[in-house]
Amino acid sequence: MTKLLRIEFKKILTYKIFWILVGLYFIFLSAGILMAEFMINNMVDNMNKHLPIPVPHVAIYFFPWVWQNIAFFATIRYVLIFPAIVIIILVTNEYSFKTIRQNMINGMSKAEFLNSKLLLILLISVIMTIFVAIATLILGFSNTADVNLATVLEKSSFIFGFFVTILTFQIFALFFAFLMRNTGLSIAIFTLYVFIIEPILYYFLKSPIVFKNDISTYLPVNSVLRITEYPSIQVLKQVMGLNLQNTVSFWACCIPLGYAAVMIGIVYWVLSKRDL
User: Fold this and answer.
1) Element spanning 207, H or E
2) Which domain covers residue 69, as residue numbers?
3) How far apart are CA 65 and CA 247, in angstroms?
4) φ/ψ of residue 195, rounded to 5
């Protein structure tokens, strides 16, 4: 395992695009986390202009709800796309620069090659989860008056939800990259699917012209985003009538993990059958 990771580190150590995209991801992630409360209260101010009874400003950085709120804002599509693009570039570059062939010549099996990418995805996911956990703890302790261990840990399961989200989303990107093998095409089709195709399909399946169903719940990207479906903000319940999420559902995590397992199986099958 460590040998495969060392090989991956050698490839990315001097690769500027990788570090630029990773840096942009952490910048957008940090900005999103820090600006979330301001943006929500700005929306509240706009709503109050049209409401007979004003809705008070909200606070989102206090324990135990800070776990859920940060996990939600850290897993919106526009933030998740950065690590996904990083994985697409790293995989497709193997084909563009013929390094995958060199790895095979040097004795690496196709299974080991795929495992090296999966280990890199796992490591990136762990690092991002640690970063978000530390940021959440800092914000929570800074904004909670009465802190005790039970309160701090009460909603901490949402950090596991973040880990599953970031892990499976990157595996989805890996799937597109291995199938397309072209950087521009893979990024274009993946972003098109994430931002346009699946959202259109989602609302079509929920429209009155289609028979009543829950299919949209099980769409790949939607299943990932539903792990942390809403932030814990009472105004959403009061004004929009939403049933706020209390914990991370085991079943909600199983669906994207199941998709990820199937996609890894398909990638392995394609690798074993396709010429390099």
Assistant:
1) none
2) 2-273
3) 10
4) -100, -20
Any idea which of 9-18, 125-134, 231-240 has the lowest mean pLDDT? 231-240
Q: What residue type is assigned to position 93 of the chain?
A: N
Cα separation values, 253 from 29, 78, 163, Å: 22, 21, 10
CB atoms within 10 A of CB 54: 11
CA distances from 144 to 65, 128, 229, 254, 258 (A): 10, 24, 24, 33, 37
Q: Is the pLDDT reported for residue 242 higher than 70?
A: no
- Domain count of the fold of the chain: 1
DSSP state for residue 196 in the 8-state scheme: I
Q: Is the peptide bond before 231 cis (omega within 30 degrees of 0)?
A: no
- pLDDT category at 260 given cuts 50, 70, 90 is very high
CA atoms 174, 176, 182, 183: torsion sign: negative
156's tokens: 């901490």
pLDDT at 42: 77
Can you say whether the dihedral through the CA atoms of 222, 226, 231, 237 is positive or negative? positive
Distance of alpha carbon 221 from alpha carbon 165, whole angstroms: 10
